[in-house]
Design a protein that fits this description.
The protein is mainly α and 106 residues long. The chain has helices at 3-21, 26-33, 37-44, 53-63, 86-95, and strands spanning 80-83, 101-104. The chain has a single domain (3-104), classed as lambda repressor-like DNA-binding domains (434 Repressor (Amino-terminal Domain), Orthogonal Bundle). 53% of the residues lie in helices and 8% in strands. Strands 1-2 form a two-stranded parallel sheet. Helix 5 (86-95) links the parallel strand 1 (80-83) and strand 2 (101-104). Helix 2 packs across helix 3. The longest helix is centred in the first third of the chain and has 19 residues, at 3-21. The chain is globular and about 35 Å long.
């Protein structure tokens, strides 16, 4: 399984887990992040591989969690490794400044 596929599956599980914990329906979450309910469904089923940084930030905000929590298989885990393009390194560093991360440049 590729890293991208694994990240998509991890994101899918985390979004659903946090949405249910927040007591939100897919429709309610979609309204909060200004996405179509079908898009939330696709994300939660790992069928939407390209979510976009702005949408990830909006999801995290609407779910009341820090962004990095959307990429953890284990909700209690403290460390995460991400593979990102140089273009997003500064954005991720700003968002994840409280998290210890290893950045691998392609």
């Amino acid at each position: 399984m590729s890293d991208k596929t694994q990240a998509t599956l991890t994101l899918a599980k985390a979004v659903k887990r946090h949405r249910l914990a927040a007591g939100l329906t897919q429709r309610e979450l979609a309204r909060r992040v200004e996405l179509a309910p079908d898009t939330i469904s696709l994300i939660e089923r790992a069928k939407q591989p390209n979510v976009g940084l702005r949408n990830l930030e909006a999801l995290a905000d609407a779910l009341g969690v820090e962004l990095y929590r959307l990429f953890l298989d284990d909700p209690d885990a403290l460390n995460i490794n991400l593979v990102v393009s140089d273009q997003n390194v500064q954005n991720l560093q700003r968002i994840l400044d409280k998290v210890e991360i290893a950045i691998i440049r392609k």
